[in-house]
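Comment on the following before class.
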Amino acid sequence: MYAERKSRLAGAVVWTNTPAGAGTAPVLPDGCMDLMWSDGRLLVAGPDTGPHVIEGPARPWAGVRFFPGTAPALLGLPACELLDHRADLADLWPGALVRRLRDRVAAAPDAATALEEIALDRAAWSAAPDPRLRRLVERLAQGCPVSVAAAELGIGARQLHRRCQASFGYGPKTLARILRLRRALALARSGVPYAETATRAGYADQPHLAREVRRLAGRPLGELLRGGG
């Protein structure tokens, strides 16, 4: 069972997932990065460009999903270094620090809340993310074209691409495609017919929607919705 709640950290979500058995639905791209806990390990999920299948036996997970573009400032490294990758936190931060944090989460009555507190502690002294990138996410999520959003924010194309690589792991056009996918999935899950979903989400037509879903999610839209992805 998957459950989530809003975090005290702005824009973040605290979540837990206890799979019922084999055949867990893949994790789909969402523009985010996560700090996670499972089997006594602290891990970081980098930004995805395709579906991520969790390997191994089913086991409980807890995590904090950061608002798109905000995790690199907390982690101290650019998002592109973790693109399509899951890394042990001990490979990114000093071992002694990670051992202390690991002990802290292990001793806590609720692992998800302990992860949230670690993220809040980190955010208290980390550099604040560029607010223009948060606005970029908001505008792209609304379906605004990349060129229009960049002009509104006063950021040139080259500078925008560099900042997006560091903050999201990929360029603004890929970010826009991923956010459009999330928009389409939300519409389809709410019962909007596929053709109308395609139009409202910003696709040229229903076949365009179908192609993009397969490219980014790895499965047809109907199968994706039935599987709860």
User: Anything to note?
Assistant: Residues 2-125 form one domain. The longest strand covers residues 2-6.
